[in-house]
Amino acid sequence: MTDIMSETVTSPARDINFIISLLEAGDAKDLRSYLADIHPADFADQFEQLSNDQREGFIALTPELISAEVLAQLEDEVVEDILPLLPSHQIAGAITELDNDDATQIFEEMEDEQRSEILEVLEPEDRANLEASLAFDEETIGRLMQREFVAAPPFWTVGDTIDHMRATGEGLPDLFYNIWIVDTKFHPIGHIPVSTLMRNSRDTSLQTLMDDQVVTIAQNMDQEEAAYLFEKYHLISSPVVDDDGRISGIMTADDIIDIIQDENKEDMLALAGVTEAGVTDTAFSTVKARAPWLFINLMTAILASFVIAMFEYTITEFVQLAILMPIVASMGGNAGTQTLAVAVRSLAERDLTSQTAWRAIRREGVAALFNGIIFAVALAIIAYVWFGRQDIAIVAFIAMIINHLFAGLAGIMVPLGLKKLGFDPAVSSSVFVTTVTDVVGFFAFLGFAALMLL
Amino acid sequence: MTDIMSETVTSPARDINFIISLLEAGDAKDLRSYLADIHPADFADQFEQLSNDQREGFIALTPELISAEVLAQLEDEVVEDILPLLPSHQIAGAITELDNDDATQIFEEMEDEQRSEILEVLEPEDRANLEASLAFDEETIGRLMQREFVAAPPFWTVGDTIDHMRATGEGLPDLFYNIWIVDTKFHPIGHIPVSTLMRNSRDTSLQTLMDDQVVTIAQNMDQEEAAYLFEKYHLISSPVVDDDGRISGIMTADDIIDIIQDENKEDMLALAGVTEAGVTDTAFSTVKARAPWLFINLMTAILASFVIAMFEYTITEFVQLAILMPIVASMGGNAGTQTLAVAVRSLAERDLTSQTAWRAIRREGVAALFNGIIFAVALAIIAYVWFGRQDIAIVAFIAMIINHLFAGLAGIMVPLGLKKLGFDPAVSSSVFVTTVTDVVGFFAFLGFAALMLL
Fold first, then answer.
1. Which of A78, A222, A421, B355 lies 20 to 30 Å (CA to CA) from residue A212?
2. Would you tell me which CATH number, out of the four given (1.10.1790.10, 1.25.40.10, 3.60.120.10, 1.25.60.10), belongs to the domain B2-139?
3. Residue B1: what pLDDT?
4. Which of A165, A260, A337 sits opposite B257 (nearest CB)?
């Protein structure tokens, strides 16, 4: 039995073509019995891989299989697509069943009309929770937190707490990992892991068990900041406090993992000049997400072309320059991108701070000089062997060192500067850095060539 | 009191210059009392920001402040640097005090000589645990898992379990979140969250409480795979099983967060052609981590130059080509990088699978054609306005579309191909893709120019 369990859960027995064949046969019965056996997360993964038409066919055939748990597991964009296809009573049921953080995420994806329809049929408490969450900005903790938690005063005993939990029953969250110890004003003053509580005898007072180090998260905190605190302090759950320091909800590590993945994806795509990407992207949305940065790149490439055009005459005289100049620009571009990726990552991990900025700039400068010299020598040799001209080799040598230096310094100073000015360093640094390396690369190379060769 | 607590923990009262000034004054007493107040994670962060000399000075003055908890929080590379400076008995004490996963990480950073010294003074059980962990490959779960966990047979009651835990005391992990229900062969057959256990009366049998869906992780599993399972199934902790399916340890979400951050960092740096980067990097290690990829880039840039050299005569006749050709190459390079970043990220998130590969390739092809046409028109107009030559505008137009198409297809097919061949798609895709876009860009542009203009 064990083996079957783990098998079913970690790798679904059948691949997606099995679902597709049942769909095409309109075999609702087999679809139901197959999906009853697999984990909602596995089904959500498979459902995401269906085409739009197949999803619509699925919902037309067996709408009830899109359960609350499945909705909570699907990617937001897929939820947005299918909500209009599901009966309102089913969505309302799912929202009631789910913890409020999951319910909020589903609610976020609805059209206004459907929202009011659903709000009408919800219980007052569910409605109040939803509205409270939606009052916070997207990507802040107030929007994402779970509003149910277990708190106890320090003068209770282990026994009091256990009795209280047994009595409360439904009002508790499905899962929790810490009891938050609060003062009379509901400020968290300590915490007791549930596993510690369980190990101690009923008459132990919470005061003696509690750890008085509590990392609290503010309701208005950006999700990225909260994720950083979880990473830094190795948290499993953490209380969220309102402006007066009163506990108003909790965040747990499983939701933080989702946040971290979203933020990492955002940074990685932003560095490459992509604003958004998802499983359901069409060719059209792909164009929309990428054309703006390509347009900016076109502008900066033209800027670099102007630099080349300044030396039109030099190139006519020495066509070898046209052959070598992309090497200088490309090496600078790569070196700059390397430095930039390291800098953006270090900023995200808070390793690069105002305290360490100068040390990092110095290190990048020295490293750029080193790499510059290494590859300047290499290019000079290649140029000399290829064209047999010492003067062109010298020009290539000097231009390479200069461009590496600019690349290294731009790679670290552009993201630091953007961060200091309050911008996201991942988003627009690339364009600045490659513009610098293109313009400097062409200008240094052709400029020195004009001076030395003409 | 609350406010002070949260303040101390989430933002240390003093910045790093305070520590430095105490260090310079040799004020061990104030250093001790300041550090007693702040969270070990905050202290670890500050210690990482010290220079090598300052770290040595710190350890010479107050070695005891590098506690077990601090060692567990420091980055591996910093631990490696300072272990030789710490007294062996202190390290042995830390290893005994820590959970075995943290102990293993510290042990990994030691020189052989220090290892045998420490092994000699450890308790047999701690030694056996360490050796068992180190028998697994780096970055596999066997190395990273915690070897202490709580398991119970299904026929026990809640009361039995609680009594067992109270009796066992020291043998239990510091924190745990689930009770793993095992059969007589120690195979996990279900789990009960501690919070569920607590809420139920003492006479409830575990069998009735347990959730029989268990996501197990194999000892030999790569850490990235395990992180993916945590993300997918929203796990807080998960049992690790040996080759016979017997539970041998657990993984928890806080450690998974560290793994996710490491893997993301690796992918992001690899895409930019950096093999490694850390807080303690010197200029020399920076050069070492980047020069190899710059060297490969030099080779591919020279390849692109050969293509240009093939059309030396065409360029001499029409110097405008030298001015415009970097634009075509740069646009293709950017479009390819965009597609590549999306593909690498989708592969990491398992959104891009063999099931969805063709759909993604088709989408990228269509999007590339669209973007190609948009920017081909733009460049053609610019070329016409700039140089007043219709023929050059047409050449630019055709080359731009071709290069966008190749960029889009290379951007998705290169990482898919590398993955299929068993390579990490993040590591070497960039170089292939930019080589394609450079070579195709120059060849298409200059080739059509030679055909049309000469």
1. A222
2. 1.25.60.10
3. 32
4. A260
- B322 to A308: CB separation less than 8 angstroms, yes or no: yes
Residue of A nearest to B159 (CA): A198
Q: Which residue has the higher pLDDT, B311 or A427?
A: B311
Q: Which two tokens stand for residue B153?
A: 């047979």
B151-252 and B283-453 in the same fold: no
State residue A183's pLDDT score. 95
| Residue A151, SS3 per DSSP | strand
Pick the CATH number of B151-252 from 3.10.580.10, 1.10.300.10, 3.40.1080.10, 3.40.250.10: 3.10.580.10
| pLDDT less than 50: residues of chain A | 1-11, 13
CB contact A382 to B (< 8 Å):
yes
Measured CA to CA, the distance from residue B77 to residue B102 in angstroms comes to: 14
Whether B241 has its CB under 8 Å from any CB of chain A: the answer is yes
Is B169 in Cβ contact with A199 (below 8 Å)? Answer: yes
| pLDDT tens-digit series, residues A53-75 | 899 999 999 999 999 999 999 98
Helix (H, G, I), strand (E, B) or coil at A184: coil
Who among A162, A305, A323 is closest to B326 (CB)? A305
- Length reported for chain B: 454
CB contact under 8 A, B367 and A265: no
- Hey, is the C-beta of B119 within 8 angstroms of any chain A C-beta? no
**How close A407 comes to chain B (CA, Å)?**
13
Which of A257, A268, A284 lies closest to B231 in CB terms?
A257
Phi/psi for B190 (5° steps) reads 175, 175
Nearest to B6 by CA among A393, A215, A108: A215
| Strands B178-182 and A247-252, bridge-based pairing | unpaired
In this prediction, residues B413-421 reach a mean pLDDT of: 95
Residues A37/B224, Cβ–Cβ less than 8 Å: no
Instruction: Tell me whether strands A217-218 and A237-241 are parallel, antiparallel or unpaired.
Output: parallel
The CATH architecture assigned to A151-271 reads Roll (3.10)
The answer as to CATH 1.10.357.20 being correct for domain B283-453 is yes
Contact B218, B167 (CB under 8 A): no
The most confident of A16-25, B97-106, B375-384, by mean pLDDT = B375-384
Rounded distance between C-alpha atoms, residue A367 and residue B294, angstroms: 13
DSSP letter for A429, please: H
CA–CA distance, B440 with B109 (Å, rounded to integer): 47
Q: Is A305 part of the contact surface with chain B (CB cutoff 8 Å)?
A: yes
SS3 B179: strand
Interchain CB distance below 8 Å, A308 and B287: no
Whole-number mean pLDDT of chain B? 90
In chain B, residues 123-152 whose CB comes closer than 8 Å to chain A: none
Nearest-CB residue to A6 (from B216, B258, B382): B216
pLDDT of residue B5: 38
Can you give the three-state secondary structure of B89-152, one letter per residue? HHHHHHHHHCCHHHHHHHHHCCCHHHHHHHHHHCCHHHHHHHHHHHCCCCCEHHHHCECCCCEE
* Domain ranges across chain B: 2-139, 151-252, 283-453
Q: Which of residues 312-331 of B touch A (CB under 8 A)?
A: 312, 315-316, 319, 322-327, 329-331
At A87, give phi and psi (nearest 5°): -65, 140
What is the H or E stretch that residue A454 is in? none
Distance (Å, whole) CA B75 – CA B59: 17
| CATH number for the domain running over A2-138 | 1.25.60.10
Q: By the 8 A CB rule, do A368 and A442 touch?
A: no
Greater confidence, B349 or A277? B349
- Say whether residue B50 is in contact with chain A using an 8 A CB cutoff: no
**Whether the predicted pLDDT of B10 surpasses 80:** no
